[in-house]
Specification:
By secondary structure, the protein is α+β, with helices and mostly antiparallel strands. The protein folds into two domains: about 130 residues, Diaminopimelate Epimerase, Chain A, domain 1 (Roll); about 130 residues, Diaminopimelate Epimerase, Chain A, domain 1 (Roll). It is built from five helices and 19 strands. The chain has a 17-stranded mixed sheet that branches. Strand 1 and strand 2 form a beta hairpin. Helix 1 crosses helix 2. The longest helix is centred in the first third of the chain and has 15 residues. The protein starts with a helix and ends in an 11-residue tail after the last strand.
Length: about 290
């Protein structure tokens, strides 16, 4: 049994939901009644699109507390645990709202509390908290002007740094479609200025109140959408004077509505969809001797 199959073996029979927000997809485990201590190897094995279920992030819903309906634990496709994921937040919030019959839910993440409300037609609005703009909040390896970082790499130059509970480097370009993200993304992700690595966004102004964004996600690669990245893009664009504090952010998988409120919090509205349900072992062959 190879390493990936060994990681799966410990999860045999575990039920899951496959969900997505604009094609940014997740395997969601409910660990509220039956604890689940996912290892990095297990998370990576689940996320593997050839030998596992396949997803951008693996999510575990854990018991909440007096201030939150649940705790959401997040693993990137490479198995690293991270603090925030906007599209997954909407998906988990929708599950909790449907379960409770209420039109709102509060999640605790490693990045803090997130309140979400139903926005109609299967959409959810999540208050992703305040954008963090200081160099040591991103975090960066040294003091820098976060409005123009000293990074020049091919078509990508002088990004704006924003943290939405996870770090983002937002590059403004004439044509986001023309950027070779598959080449530049992994290099910038691991740039020494980012001690915790970074997500990378290429953004162009697509018209009044509209931004076109493509994204390389830290620990994942190019994805169809990134909720925290869309939030970071709007904040960065507003700081640069390229848009107002509200915009439609157009991603490969669809659009999100983002508002940077006057209190500093960023509100994100978009869909949350259930693709299918299953159980580990029902879909994933465990006994291949390879």
């Amino acid at each position: 049994m190879n390493t990936a199959h060994a990681a799966f073996a410990a999860l045999r029979g575990r039920p899951f939901r496959k969900m997505h927000g604009l094609g940014n997809d997740f395997v969601v485990f409910d660990a509220r009644k039956h604890a689940l201590a996912l290892s990095p190897a297990q998370a990576a094995a689940v996320a593997d699109r050839r030998r596992g279920i396949g997803c951008d992030q693996v999510i575990a819903i854990e018991p909440g507390d007096a201030t939150a309906d649940a705790f959401m634990r997040i693993f990137n496709a490479d198995g690293t645990e991270v603090s925030a994921c906007g599209n997954a937040t909407r998906c988990v919030a929708r599950l909790l709202m449907e379960e409770s019959g209420h039109g709102e839910a509060t999640l605790r993440t490693r990045a803090g509390l997130i309140r979400a409300v139903a926005a109609g037609d299967g959409k959810v609005t999540a208050d992703m908290g305040a954008a963090r703009l200081k160099w040591d909040e991103i975090p960066l390896a040294e003091a820098c002007d976060t409005l123009s970082l000293p990074i020049l790499m091919g078509a990508l130059e002088y990004p704006v740094a924003v943290s939405m509970g996870n770090p983002h480097a937002v590059f403004f370009v004439a044509d986001a479609e023309a950027v070779d993200l598959s080449t530049l993304g992994p290099v910038i992700e691991t740039h020494p200025l980012f001690p915790e690595k970074t997500n990378v966004e290429a953004v162009s102004v697509a018209g009044n109140g509209r931004l076109r964004m493509r994204v390389w996600e830290r620990g994942v690669g190019i994805t169809q959408a990134c909720g925290t990245g869309a939030c970071a893009a709007l904040v960065a664009a507003a700081r640069r004077g390229l848009t107002d504090r509200k915009a439609e952010v157009i991603l490969d998988g669809g659009s999100l509505r983002i508002t940077w409120a006057e209190n500093g919090h960023v509100l994100m509205t978009g869909p949350a969809e259930l693709a299918f349900e299953g159980a580990i072992g029902d879909l994933c062959p465990m006994d291949d001797p390879a």
